[in-house]
Task: structure prediction
Amino acid sequence: MSRHAVEPLRAGERPAVANGESFSSAHETPSTRTEEAATHRDVSAPVIGMYIVAACVVLVETQPLAIPVLTDRLHVYYWPASLAGRVDRPIGMLLLFLLALTVHLRLRLRERALEGGPLLLPFACFLLCVAWGVVHGLSAGGSVRIIVLEVRPFCYLFLSYLLAYNLVTTTRQVRTLLWVIIIGAGVKALQGMYIFLGVLQGRLEGHREIMAHEESFFLAVVIVLFVIFSLHHRDRRQYQTILSLLPFLTVVLIANQRRVAYLELLAGAGVAWALAFLQAPSRRRRLVKILSVSVPLIVLYVLAFHQNTTFFARPAGALVSMFYPEPNTKSAESNLYRTIENRNLLATIRKHRILGTGFGLPFLQPTALPDIGQWNPYYLHIPHNTILWVWMRLGTIGFLALWVLIGAIVVRGALFARRLRDPYLQCVAIFVVSVTFMELLAAWADYQLYNLRNVLYLGLMAGVLMKLPSCDADQATEPPEGRRGEVVPAKSPQRAVA
Result:
């Protein structure tokens, strides 16, 4: 045999390839490369779909506004009249389609169809209680139509969590999602400026809000993100973008006249400060100085301007009116309605303490509420206070299951903020925990656990939060030239973090 003859390979041995090429690259054909490119495009399709869902959450209203702004006329959360009565909304069908596509692609790659992540067990316990609420409500004669309306937000909460948890794999995707949130808030702020200055000519008399109720929440969370970037580490581009939008965000937040939004803003900023304080001992002295200056300024602002009627004094008056409203005002009427409503809910809870009423039934009215059926036909089924609503529907067991789920998000987020190495991902963890607290405040006062945009937002953020450790591990092994975005410490913007 010639010395140039090829010797047979032993089991498991790969042939040597010259010039340092791998066996796969040496034998790669154009068709193989085409298949790989097509697979990459297929896998990226659900991720793009996730960005579209996030854009729908921050950009599109759930119902038409009194003053059209284009996005409120998009059929995302409701069907046109010719298609009314479908089992689910367009956004729900999009979620199901994206999850089905994700399952298909993962199976093609011989991966597990879907992963539930650390929140799967808390979600399963809570959704089991929701399923009991459906059965209990049906057996008690609850309206099927109202049951579907009440249960849909909890399904969307879980589906959006699953979507984000199974699609987010890199820090770049996390950063892109935050860009969607920031740009979305900027667009809504510009729409609000158009309504406030262009249509209303700066006059708010006779208008209780100029945009959707939940819009104030989405504006406030972006302001809180700016606070987090200021207190902790910042992505320079995102920080500067929010800074340029801040005047518009502030004006529209005030013009939309949602009192609870100011409490949400204060609570979100407070949570962000506390987590930044716990995470970075080296910056605690600076954080204490910030707190010692900002709290007295806020208190002085409220004391000095709560009786002032100028535009930029409105937040001070709104905060005071939540606790001490002026008699014979809309704030006093709103407070009284919510007080009666909460008393009725608590009376219903006391009668159905353990297992709840189930879905689809009206709550008790020991004290009759004013009839607002012409504005809200479901006002006796879905109250403003959606925290007590969950307790009433699911009883104490289901109520505890909700708090286990919320607690899991908060505790894991706080732990991630301390353990992650990437400062940008630390900011994201702090942001999600702050958003969760803000959502709870909004849910106590203003329907937010029933609002589809809010639950989708919370679900997406929870899914992102649970993927931060794996993104952090990948970031640590990625070569520096492959990383994107510029993250700088809040204390010293001129010094880049290695």
Summary: The longest strand covers residues 233-235. The beta strands are 233-235, 487-489. The mean pLDDT is 87.
